[in-house]
Amino acid sequence: MKPILPPLNALRAFEAAGRLGSFKEAAAELHVTPGAVSQQVRLLEDWLGAALFERHNRRVALTPAAKTYLEEIGPLFERLAQATAQYGVPKAVTRTLTVSALATFTLRWLVPRLAKFRAQHPDVEVKVDTSNEPLESLEADCDVIIRGGPDTFYGYSMRPFLSEERLPVCSPALLQRVPLRSPEDLRQHTLLHTSSLPRLWPDWLSSARIPALKPAATLTFDHFYLTLQAAIDGIGIAMGPTALVSDDLAAGRLVAPFDAPRLPSRSYCVYVPNEKADDELVGLFCAWLEREGRASMPA
User: Fold this and answer.
1) Cβ contacts of residue 150 below 8 Å, gap of 6+?
2) What is the DSSP string of 44-97?
3) Cα 141 from Cα 127, distance rounded (Å)
4) Three-class SS of residue 129?
5) Would the pLDDT of 96 be above 70?
6) Among the residues of the chain, which ranges form H helices?
7) Model confidence over 46-64: pLDDT tens digits?
């Protein structure tokens, strides 16, 4: 009679979580989300008809029976890995992940970090489609969609991964030519605008309690990434989103002459179609976005 085996993905999740004592650490090792590990563990618990873990805040502890079970299956995974290694490294299976993301976000945040994802997952081909279309208007079939939020859309799961605020930024060379000691000194500068975001400067000036300030000049661009590039080139001062200029601030290409006031802004969120919610590659990419989002925010 053919032996009955438990679901192997669920068994692998249980082994990692039991060995590490944490769903979060198991998720990092398996390159999936903590939610995916939890889901697989519950699947195995349902299959066995018994609880495997006791939940304690951020940690988990094995039940006595599960501890014995882990001691039995742990060596089996090691033997399986050793047996597989005798046949050499398996050929890489390339899979394409289609991502739709906002143009400025893609240029200034996603692209500089994609090399790290590709180095970690050389078997995955990432196809990025830049679009500012609202999510409900997208016609392309995408695995992951990055837009502002948080918003709720029928048929999609959502989670924020990167927050930001907005404040004035400019090149260090510009400040050397015309110093900024207080917000009132903006009268001597060119303020850079983006046509699709006309309220940024008026709202900031109102928050700074100088709503009637008249700058030396203004310059308006049709794309936000052009506005930010003009600031880097020393043409004027832009309202910079902290998430998208963090690399420039760290590298010294831009400086923030005033730490306050800061305008609140929507977060960047990842939206996943419900039919792709259990896709392991989608979960892996979303978990990577969350890690990069945390790492890019100032301490």
Assistant:
1) 158, 160, 267, 269
2) HHHHHTS--EEEETTEEEE-HHHHHHHHHHHHHHHHHHHHHHTT-PPPP--EEE
3) 12
4) strand
5) yes
6) 8-20, 23-30, 34-48, 64-85, 103-105, 111-120, 172-177, 200-207, 224-232, 242-251, 280-296
7) 888 888 888 776 677 888 8
Which residues fall within 8 angstroms of residue 184, CB to CB, at 6 or more apart?
Answer: 210, 213
- The residue among 206, 207, 215 whose CA lies nearest residue 188 is 215
Domains of the chain: residue spans and CATH: 8-85 (1.10.10.10), 95-163+266-296 (3.40.190.10), 165-264 (3.40.190.10)
* Nearest residue to 24 (alpha-carbon basis) of 1, 48, 57: 57
The span from the CA of 207 to the CA of 199, in Å, is: 12
What distance in Å separates the CA atoms of residue 205 and residue 248, rounded to the nearest whole number?
23
From CA 180, how far away is CA 203, in angstroms rounded? Answer: 19
Query: In terms of C-beta density within 10 A (0-12 exposed, 13-18 middle, 19 or more buried), how is residue 48 classed?
Result: middle
Q: Of 202, 239, 203, 245, nearest to 221 (Cα)?
A: 239
Instruction: Locate 41 and state its tokens.
Output: 């563990």
In degrees, rounded to 5, the angle at the alpha carbon of residue 99 between the alpha carbons of residues 96 and 105 is 140
CA 108 – CA 248 distance, rounded (Å): 9
pLDDT over 90 at 269, yes or no: yes
Q: Say if residue 232's pLDDT is above 60.
A: yes
Distance CA 238, CA 231 (A): 6
Q: Give me the residue label for tokens 């730490």.
A: 259
- Among 70, 78, 77, 80, smallest CA distance to 20 is for 70
The Cα 64–Cα 79 span in angstroms is 24
